[in-house]
Each structure stands twice: as structure tokens, then as C-alpha cells.
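chain below, 418 aa
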Amino acid sequence: MGAVEWPGEAAPGRRFDQDWGWPGFDFDVPWAWPSGVYVVVLTTGSKREADPPLDSRSARVLVIVTPPPNSRNPHILYKVPVFTYHAYNTSGGGSLYGSLRPEDDPAVVRGSSISLLRPGGGVGGGVKGMADPYDLDSPRQTFAHWDAQFLAWMEREGFAYDCCTDLDLHEGRILSTGYALLVSAGHDEYWSAETRRHVEQFRGSGGNLANFGANTCWWRVRPDVDGAALRCDKFPAGAPVGADPDTLRGAPDHWWESEPENALTGVSYRNGGSHWSGPRRSLGFRIQYADHWVFEGTGLHEGDIIGERGALVGYECDGAAYAIDSADRAQPTGRDGTPSGFRILGLAPLPSEDAEGWQFAAREPAAGTSPQAATLGLYRAGGTVFTAGTTDWARLLATDSQVQAITGNVLSRLSSRR
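prediction:
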């Protein structure tokens, strides 16, 4: 898309909660560039890479070009989860999951604050977490892993979209300029209170939401006034060193402990339970209400299972508390904050034993006899909110025709003008 030369200079690395103090250089984004995600490729000298890899752990910068003011926007706005990228970014020896360096001051070891002014955050830099055995081409918690696959599929299918970041929504920009649908995919875990409030206002005024991911809106973060750092308090006072914050009660920034995220998404990570750390038994969603518009053109019938061959359910999942009715269908109980009008369209009961390789840290004890389950469904409250209930939805877009058809149905239906 373009190139520019800057006078580079050496700059030492710093800690993960510090501004790295890099020199800044100006670059004017041409007006002709469409809104979207761009990757800056840094090189030395005059050599240019003709076809650089999308994802690299060095010499890359993620840039989100937002739509210009007063532009004629498409119907879809895609939320790029930069807060989550940075929460897992380990540049500087740590992340919002704590310090990796034993020499760090104990006050920062738990990682309650991170700087966004450091390498990484979507592309480049280190990333916390294990490799994905189903897609080794890129680390999880990066742009290439889920978001790029989803956006590439949208472009191939002819869905026009604009892009924004968490910070744009936090600051109350862009979302209120006439979009019909806000979309996120993959792993959109870290939300500020302002971001959530603005999204809820959008939904309340008739805007639609499509969440093709899971573990959504699990932790609350607080950006500083400059948008250059994030804070997240995961540990209650007196929590033992080494404790997993997902097992604790009283964590200050657990959304579900104060304002359950079910009220926004319809589902919660605590009714999924946690994650697989490696390969998993293949699970898919068992379909109910097969005549719903979401399933048009899929050929699905009541009780069919989608995505099982491709291990669609995982690596993390969200669910709703439910009970089985007299027609043998799952219905939400609402005890967890799920809206009463939520329609469960697909259910995937999750493991209840360690032998499955499932991690149980965030799991809420089940009420009655119904196990926790990844939950596919939707509800209406002003606008319509769809949730896929699994992080790996985008991965199957390349190979599963039923996942493709459902995605197309949701995007087409919910992006129509209000």
C-alpha cells in the first residue's frame, strides 16, 4: 500500500508496564485507503519485502485504519480486540498474566498494569499461551489467528466492513455513525466499562451484535487517559501468591461478579468452564429449532451436529445455564443473567473430568443435572444479539460449509439497515 523512510535509532527495551520511549515518526494515511487492518513491515536499508508473512514475531506493527469522518459507511463495523492482544503480549517480560522475570519487583509480578507503547499487540512481540494444535501457523491471541481468517472470509463473500478498535469504542467514537451490525470474532476477552456501555447503548437503540467467539467480556480493564496503558485488578485482597484468579471470588475486575456479561452476550465463560491446553475430543453443536432463519440453506435437521469433525467447540467456550424442557430442548434458566428471551439454537455439553484435558479454573458449579455446555444462540433487546459460543468459529470458515452458511445468514440478516 505504500512505503516511507525514517531515520531509525537504537532504543533499549523496557519492562512490560513501561512506555518503551521509542522515537515517533509521522505518516499520513492516504484518504484513498479503505478502513481495515494494515501491517507495517519494518526493514533496514532500502530492501523491501515483496510478500511479507502476515504474522511475524518481530519487525511488525498492527495499524487499524478507521473510517474517515462523514464517509459513506458499509453496514458492518468489525471490532479488532487490541485490548486482548495486549493483555497477552509478553514484550518486556510480562503481561496482564504477570511477570516472566524473577528479578521484577513483587509489586508488578502479578501484572495489574501493562503499557500499550511497546512491541507486539496483534503482530510482533511475544505472546502468552500454548500453541494451537489445530492451527500452528500463528499463535493464539494474535490478529492472524482468528480475526484475519474471519475478515478474509467476509471479503471473499462480498461483505463490506469498516474496522475499529476497543479504544475507539471506549472513547465513544464510530459506533454511533449509522452501522447496523457490530461484529467480533475469536477471542475478545478484555472490555472497559465505557466500551461495554457504548455497545449496550448501540444494541438498545436497535443496533445488532454478532459475536463469533467466546470468553467475551470476561475481564474489565481501565485504559489511562491517554489510551497508552491498561489496568486490570484480578486478585482480591489477601489472595495467595500463585493463585489462579479465575478460581477466586471477589476479583475486582471479573465482569460476572458485578455485571454478568450474559446480559450483553447472552452467555458467559463461567458456564463454559475454561479451556483445553492441547488437542481435544472433537465436539460440535447439537442443533435445535432447525427451522430458524440462522440455519437457512444448511440442510440441517433437528438434532444434527455441526462442526464435530473440525473440533468446532474449543479452545474456550461460553455457555448459558439451562434446563431441558418436556420437548427435550434446552431452555435458559436465567439464573446466571442470561436474558429470558435468549433462544438456544445449539448445545455442546462439555467435559466434566480431567481426563479430557479440560481446565476447570473458571467453571461455575452446575445447578441440577444439566452439565455446562457451549451455547449457540441469540436474543433480541432493541437489536438482535447472536453468539457462537466458541473461539474457533473462524477457523472452520475455510472448510465447513454449514459454518459458512450460518455465518452468511447472520451477517446478511443483521447487517440490513434499521
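The chain has a mean pLDDT of 91. Residues 401-414 form the longest helix (14 residues).
thats it, cya
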